[in-house]
Specification:
CATH architecture of the largest domain: Sandwich
CATH topology of the largest domain: Immunoglobulin-like
CATH superfamily of the largest domain: Immunoglobulins
Distance between the termini: 16 Å
Strand content: over 45%
Strand order of the largest sheet: 13-12-15-16-17-11-14
Radius of gyration: 25 Å
Largest sheet: 7 strands, mixed
Number of strands: 34
Number of helices: 1
Shape: flat
Amino acid sequence: MADLSLILWPSSAIAGVVRDASGRATSGMAVRLFDGRADASGTVEPRLIAATTTDDRGDYRFFHLRDGEYVIAASGGRGGGESRAFVYHPSAARFVDARRLSLEVGQELTGIDVAFTPAPPVFIGGTIRLATGEPASLYRLSALLRSTYGTIPTTYLNVNRDGRIADSNVPSGDYQLIVRADRLVRDAAGVEPSAQPGTLWAQRQLTVPLGGVTDLSVTCTPGITLDGQVVFAASAVPPRAPVRLKLQSLQVPDFASTADVEMTPGKASLFRFGDLLPGPYRLVTEPQSPLPRSWSASLRLNDVDAPDDVIDVPAAPDSSLHVNFSLQLSEFNGRLLDKSDRPAVDFFVVLFPIDPRLWTVGTRRVQQARPATDGSFMVSGLPAGDYYLAVLTDVDSRAMFDRTFLGGLAQSNPFRLTLTPGENPAQTLRVGAAR
């Protein structure tokens, strides 16, 4: 197969200073870089690309950036006190009001300062109730707050064990509130409840005015149950032990539901996920499960294909999930050389799917490899399909799954590859040669 030649594009940077209300540079402030472009629907929403902290001179710098449109925000760190509020460059309280920064290839924008004068916090007070009629003390309660317009980072409100919400550090604005109630094995008095442990949920939109909220009331109801079946390829040798499937919430970072499934080749094995909050989830197998990386799971929810192990659990009951395990992952290897045919070891090879619907956080379809001293590299565990291939001087692991980052790579005219199950023909890539 003919060699591939690649062109490297110079990266860009954004730098500035965060200053307090008196104009003094402030160290220890959290600074975030967001994508400033609208998505396909025309909506502009905060999508985090990178984060850093100001140094002892109040300076920050983001580097290795693609050309594009960006937004800078600062929030309370060591120098910002206890404030949760974002302040966007130059001094806006909301993401939609922030100044967009247009960054060109190889450009460094300096002097992008932030005047950190956060919006004053207000009080949120209220009560969490349980649809079961049980006392709140039987549950571990949490209230997750997501800002609609990027007013604050995603945060948790202060909730006591009796279900009272009392938090005086939230700026006014529009939010999504997700309340979770996990039943305790024993209550605060050490008494074991009669019912089995479970999880109740509530979610709603919440507008916090300048005067705050004192009468918030939310009622938690039982979560959704999702039944399903697993089919293991008939031609395969099944694992010796049950496989643990985990449905990981993409809304609530620390929530997942698990099910242990016995695998019988060619026969359906039933499972059930319980206590689910409606919304997006990713299906994964636990690290201790005896499935090698060569096995891939394809999903169908209510007879509709789910891309890349991600499903959207509906609020309505009577949904079903079909999981099919098959041996269909791919392996790609080659060598990376410079124009003089010497090993190019100071670069990264990145493969990611052509279909942007598959650019999801944590997907195994986005992978990178660093060449060995002889220039050889290998990327394994990729589902078969169509991919872009790009070569970069550096890779930020936090940006690997960012849609803006991948979109920029897709627009840089990368190479297209079609990977088939199993090992694919090796290729030699030459860096910096004209195409």
